[in-house]
Amino acid sequence: MAKKIVGYIKLQIPAGKANPSPPVGPALGQRGLNIMQFVKEFNAATQQMEPGMPVPVVITAFADRTFSFITKTPPNTYFLKKAAKVDKGSSTVGKGSAVGRVTMSQLREIAAQKMVDMNANDVDGAVRMLAGSARSMGLTVVEG
């Protein structure tokens, strides 16, 4: 028989750097889950990733106080900032002050990595979505 699910917890935690302090501790604590067990398992699952990379995680809490979790690919903005080599997006988008540039080939690489978590039908659709995200961050999309 399947275990009864009591809820889902969605967090974004840096890869390999989960610890029991907020937001992780309180989110798991209120469901009565073993915080240290999650921290150990999450850090083990993300240790091969780039340290500090933000990793969205969905934790499924069961009625018997056990849990399972799945990690997703990092947010589009993380990859876009890395590709454009900028620390943050533009604070004044659309005012003609581009903070960086990304090429179509970079967008294609990101789309290939993100495809599992995107709701695009094909890589071209994913590239168009990423191009829109890039523009809304103040990045210029160039051919190449």
UniProtKB/TrEMBL annotation:
PTM section of the record: One or more lysine residues are methylated.
Residue ranges of domain Large ribosomal subunit protein uL11 N-terminal in the record: 9-67
Annotated GO CC locations: cytosolic large ribosomal subunit
Family matches, as InterPro entries: Ribosomal_uL11, Ribosomal_uL11_bac-typ, Ribosomal_uL11_C, Ribosomal_uL11_C_sf, Ribosomal_uL11_CS, Ribosomal_uL11_N, Ribosomal_uL11_N_sf
Pfam family, one: Ribosomal_L11
Molecular-function annotations in GO: large ribosomal subunit rRNA binding; structural constituent of ribosome
GO BP of this protein: translation
UniProt keyword terms in alphabetical order: Methylation, Ribonucleoprotein, Ribosomal protein, RNA-binding, rRNA-binding
Domain Large ribosomal subunit protein uL11 C-terminal: 72-141
Protein function: Forms part of the ribosomal stalk which helps the ribosome interact with GTP-bound translation factors.
NCBIfam families the UniProt entry points to: L11_bact
Family classification: Belongs to the universal ribosomal protein uL11 family.
Subunit structure: Part of the ribosomal stalk of the 50S ribosomal subunit. Interacts with L10 and the large rRNA to form the base of the stalk. L10 forms an elongated spine to which 2 L12 dimers bind in a sequential fashion forming a pentameric L10(L12)2(L12)2 complex. Part of the ribosomal stalk of the 50S ribosomal subunit. Interacts with L10 and the large rRNA to form the base of the stalk. L10 forms an elongated spine to which L12 dimers bind in a sequential fashion forming a multimeric L10(L12)X complex.
Protein name: Large ribosomal subunit protein uL11
Source organism: Acidisphaera rubrifaciens HS-AP3
Gene name for this UniProt entry: rplK
